[in-house]
What we know:
The structure is a single chain. The chain is an alpha+beta fold. It folds into two domains: about 1-170, no CATH class; about 310-465, Histidine kinase-like ATPase, C-terminal domain (Heat Shock Protein 90, 2-Layer Sandwich), CATH 3.30.565. The protein has helices at about 5-55, 60-70, 105-120, 145-200, 215-270, 275-300, 315-330, 350-370, 400-405, 425-435, 460-465, and strands spanning about 75-80, 80-85, 95-100, 125-130, 140-145, 310-315, 335-340, 345-350, 375-385, 390-395, 440-445, 450-455. The strands form three sheets. Strands 2-1-5-4-3 form a five-stranded mixed sheet. The chain is rod-shaped and about 160 Å long. The two termini are about 50 Å apart.
Amino acid sequence: MYFRSLSGRFLLLTTAFVLLAEVLVLVPSLARFRVDYLESRLERAQIASLSLLANDMIDETLEAELLRNAEVFNVVLLRDQVRQLVLSSPIPTPIEATYDLRSIGPVQLMRDAIVDLVTPGDGVIRVIGDPVREAGLLIEVTMDTGPLKTAMLDYGLRILVLSAVVSILTAILLFLAVRHFMLRPIRGVVEAMTSYAAAPEDARRIIQPSAKVLELNEAETALQSLQTQLTGALRQKERLAQLGGAVAKVSHDLRNILTSAQLFADRLESSADPSVARMAPKLIASISRAVNLCETTLAFGRAEEPPPALDRVALSRVVGDVVDGERLAAGEHDLSFSEDVPAGLVVRADGEQLYRVLSNLVRNARQAIMATGEPGEISIHGEEDENAWCVTVSDTGPGLPPRAREHLFTPFQGGATKGGAGLGLTIAAELVRGHGGRLDLERTGPEGTVFRVVLPKTVLSVDAAAE
């Protein structure tokens, strides 16, 4: 289990790479040791040859002793363009290979060293080199490979032992350094995430960046930003839940008040005043919608609107009710309303929810125009094709501000007017999605704003409705 951890795997990788580095260092070192060994034998052979040259008359016993001390079989010197066998003795086996140390590259040296080590048994090789201090043009010796192999193996083992000790110390130091500078901060981040997950609403558990390593500090900063946003979202969700409970209580009392108002409004229908008799049905209809909305709120136990009760609804009647209500709200302001809806246009929708959608759109347009103090016009256009019913609400207002465009359908963030909560468009969009349709902002700017409601005639998939 330990080697499945980051520290365990790092230790394995460190050990493997250090061993690889040892191999890469060992082979050139052996090649260099072999060259030094061969050159030392050339030097010894040259010294022995000089002894013979100084005294031509030496017996065979002294000659054999000179060759034995030089650890060679024969010595050949090239002096004054003359090749001369200076010292000689019987060669036990034929010469296996010839190595010229005067012109050989590092790759060839390493390959020759490996060949000497892996070749089984002992043999005889010829070695050619330059004499020391230019004492001639060339020196050539024949020698046994047995002592060379023994010396190379001994040197290689000493290098391996020394490298192993250095590797172990290096791996331990690297492991401790990485564990201190990287693994501990990472473990701290994991512990901070675990602590925050236990109580994400507690702001005290949000991580505070403290890592000195740049990348880890950036990770802690990003995690802090994410945790801060999540804590804020949870708090907003809690506030919304509390607000929902308060709205339910207010709706309960408001329903009772509106029910009483509805009873009084019913008596207005029998008034002899023609104006009162004409306005009474609209007043009663408005109060009925308010009562129905309160009852829906009280029965509303989830975060989304209840599914629409689809029916065949005359669009012109719904638009007329919306325009009549908003015209009264406009009062004396120079604001005109235009209705372009065919009298026979019937849509399949929930009448009350469609009224709320159009009422929110027209109310927003009216409030935007009245806030400017300038005259304006609101137009509602209805049409249909073989696929959908479309209702377009346009106005000549100042257009949506940048913040409202950025958070168009986000509750409590997309308010277009000062003091607005930004719930109107959110509610309208949710109600339209409940019909399988969509609410689009076609354009907005100084020349006005245009919203388009599309209600499909056929059933759409969830993904298509959400687009």
